[in-house]
Design brief:
Elements (H helix, E strand, L loop, with lengths): L13 H15 L5 H25 L1
Amino acid sequence: MSPDLTTPGSVRSAAEVNEQIRALWLRAGGSLSAQERAEYESLVVEWAAAIRGRVAEAA
């Protein structure tokens, strides 16, 4: 299964969310502000949900 496929229950694929996480870190220069940290935490939760959905589909 391709990591670019959107999984049920997830609006975006894990790959899309991962790209946003990488972009956030690049913009922040390696040090996140409080607002960026909150955004990062939200993205990680979304990414994990997308990964779980992908794993459940493969089972």
